[in-house]
Known about the structure:
61% of the residues lie in helices and 3% in strands.
Amino acid sequence: MERAELFGVPQVRPWTWQAFVLGFAIVAASAAVQGICVVLGAKLYFAAFLPSIFVVGILAGAPAAVFAALLTVPVVWWAFMPPFFEFNALTSANTDSINLFFLLAVLLIGLADLCRETTAIISRGGLRPSGESAATNSQ
């Protein structure tokens, strides 16, 4: 069986240790990018992590993307929400940011899963006609 690829980038099978390591590595890289953004004055806590959730979802599947999203929240809470490098009680604005991140992460993971399935269908040669369909009028 041939693996699906997206623009020449091979996809990792879901539920493998490689998929979760890829999710961890992409979250770590996003944390570095977010750190640079914070140094430059950005106050958006999850800005660098949202695209990474989508990339993990396309490359490694939905389980690894969910893992990356769940890993992102404690990383942002600890490293990027004041006071920095401490776990303190969350303010209502911080909990709203986390809730919005989870909403966007669910939507992005669903979209990435659809893109992943679409590339798998295209790599198999597209949809096969099954003969008669409900849209065909036999009269």
